[in-house]
Every structure is written in structure tokens, then in C-alpha cells.
Design a protein that fits this description.
The protein has 470 residues and is of the alpha/beta class. Helix content is 29%, strand content 18%. It has a single domain, classed as Alkaline Phosphatase, subunit A (3-Layer(aba) Sandwich), CATH 3.40.720.10.
Length: 470
Amino acid sequence: MKYLHYLLYPLLLVGALRAERAQPNILFILTDDMGWGDLGCYGSTQIKTPNIDRLASGGVRFTQAYVSANVCAPSRAGILTGRYQERFGFEHNLSIQDHLKPEMVGIPVDEKLISDRLKQLGYRTGAIGKWHVGESVPAFHPLQRGFDFFFGMLGGDHDYFPSKEHNELSWGNEKVKQIRTPYLTDWFTMEAIDFMERESEGVDPWFLYLAYNTPHSPMQAKKSDLEAYAHIESPERRVYCAMQKCLDDNVGKILGYLEDKGQLESTLIIFLNDNGGSVEVSHALNAPFNGTKGTWYEGGIRVPMIWHWPKVLSAGLRYTEPVIVFDIMHSLVAAAGGEVTEEKVQVGGREVVRPKDGVNLVPILLGDAKLEDRSLYWRMSLRGGAIRKGDWKLIMAPHRPPMLFNLANDPSELTNVSMRRPALVKALYREYHDWCEGFERNPMWISSPQWAGYNDALYDRTYELKQPEE
């Protein structure tokens, strides 16, 4: 007992440092192709999501949150950089073609990711799940982009029942050779909890980017989850609902872990989906919004977003102003004690100033500041784009007349009023093209032309605008 205080002192010091540290641990959960209306807290009565609903009731639920693209890879590029991905040429899903230099096909290495910024502020960083923002050269690997740990797949989709012989999973730089658990969503959660457990033993805060590929195709679910939705007639919809159940169960495991460790109140949790639900592939529902993944309708770019940070943010807050994913970067960096500023960088031998594309939402959510008016923009070369200014939204789909909607009285975008407001259409066109002229790079690659035709046909479809009964 004489020397016990020497043994306890390091533990007491660690505890004191943790108590003094103002930086929160940060968990960023990203889902893939989920429908707006496929969570209980966003209106679903068919799919039960009690754990994600718990996040919403205990935090902030955003009703007008936008991603920066209507498909996976460019959306993730915008999320991870906190900038319009069009500025640095990442407008399309990744496309490796013979005429392209491999070092071009990904987020340029001169772009700072959220992991880089948080690492500079003292965070231990981890990425688990779907990467999909570059794998053609080693410099694009997560371990070269500010992450200390990586487990997952570098590409855009994966079989949910991997085997030793058939998987594209990596542990760091090494290919996975053993299957820890049969179903991929469960596996990602196990690795996430292990990461949080390891990093919680140190004095540094941690940041975990947990990018589930659920409920992206292939549509595969566990038998036990399918049984919970056996009453649903459509086999495709049944699988989708089962995958949502599994996702919610896994969010519950994470919340349970944080609660058991006494960290739930102080951990800043962001829950976000990467683009609109895929109606035609996964049978997601974006009701009450028109459209699907791949379109500029609200159903393609408006997504569920929840922030949970009980130590700072009030429970049950519903935030109704338009926000965009770039705000996440600014808010997390500010919460960590830093600031994102305009930066001067060299691009192609010339110096350019990178503008700030987001704002810190925390003081706004606390009522200490007001969100200033701003326009939001979207573009994908050969597939058109959109601009939202106030309640007005102009959609410019290729080979079609412009579509103008007032989202305040027509959130489902059913009444095109462009012919009634030609001056407004012209003004929005002009502002949109002024924005395009500010890009630092042209598109670095363009996806296969077949996708342009596929996306164009999505505007001719009729979409379900009401939620189904149980």
C-alpha cells in the first residue's frame, strides 16, 4: 500500500486531463441512399427506428438539410472537405478510364479533409465503412488523408455477407482475411465500438467517421430482420425495411455503449444520409418529396440530419431553416476549438483563395446568432443543376425547360411556375452561372454517358408522395 499512490497517479492524471478537456468526442454517422421518409422521426409509420428517433428527441432534428450532390461520391467529397466539390472538379461518381491519370480520380491531395483539421486540433481519428472518394493511388487512402485508423471498403458498395474468399474489405492497408461476423452492418458497429473503447483510454479526444453502406444496394438482409417485416407484400420493400431495422439496432448498440461509459451526454453525434433515397433500386421512400437519388428534386438532395449533444444543445429542437452539409465541417472544427477560414493555395501554378462554403451552426442553434440569407447550389456536368434562393428553387435538367418552384407552398415540387416568373428565372440563372465561374478546376472526370440518359428518365417518373400505413 506504501507505493499505491505511485500506481494511481497516472490514472488520476488521465482523469483530470479528461475533466479539463473542453473538446468533445465526435461521432459522425453517415448512411447511404436512405429515403427521407424512412425514419420514424421523419414521418415513417411503417419502419420502426426507436434508436435513431431517440437521437432526434434528445437533440436537434433538421427539416431542411441538404447534401451537395444527388449521388454518393461527390456528396461524400463535399461532406469530407466542407466545400462545394465542384470547386475542385469532383462532380461525378468515380470513373476510372484509360485516358485519365489515376492521381486525378479522387479528392485532390491539396484539399483538407475534416480528419486533417481535427487531427491538427489534437484528435485521434478513425474511418469505418464506405470510403468512395478515391482509391486509384495510395495518396487517396484514408490513412493518407488524416485518419489514424481505417476499416472498410474503398469502393462504393459491398456484399453484406462477405466471405474470406470474396470481400473487398481492408484493415488499414491490409486486405481482410478473416470474417469477424456474418453481416457487414453489424461488423462496422463492432469495429466502431472497439475504436471508441481504445481511444477512450487516452487523454486525446477522438473523432470517428462511421460511414455505413446501409441501405445501399445490394439489397440483402438478415433472416431475423426480414421476419420483423414479413407482413409487407413487396419483397423489395421488405428487404429495405429489414436493412433499416438492422441499422437502427446498431445505432442502439452504439448509444448503449456510450451510455454505459458515461459519454453519451458529452459526445457530439451527427447523423446524416448521403443523398436522397434510391426509389428505383432499393425501394426507398422520400415522401412527401418528389424525386429520387440522381435528380435535383428535393427527394434527391434533401436528407435526414440529426445532431445530438446534450451537454450543449437542447433536446427536442426542430430546426427549420435551410442548411447544407458544409456547415458540419465548420461546426465540428469550432466545437474542437478551431476555425475554418478562407485559405490561399496554389492550384495549377496560380494562387487562389478558397472561400468558406459553410457556417458554424452551434451558436445559431443556441440562439446566440442568426443564420444569414444565402443561396445554395448544385451542379453535375451534363446532368444539369439547381439553385435555391430563399423559398425559390430553380432546377435545370438537361434538354428540358427550366423548372421553378416555391418550396414554401409547394414542397413536393408539383407546380412549375417558371413561365409566370421569367424575370426571376433569369436572375437565378445568372447567379448560378456566376457561381460556376468561380470554380478552381474543371471536372476532373465525367461518368459514363449512359448515366446521363438514366438520370434524365428519372424526371418522367411518378413518385409516391404519401407514407404507407404499417
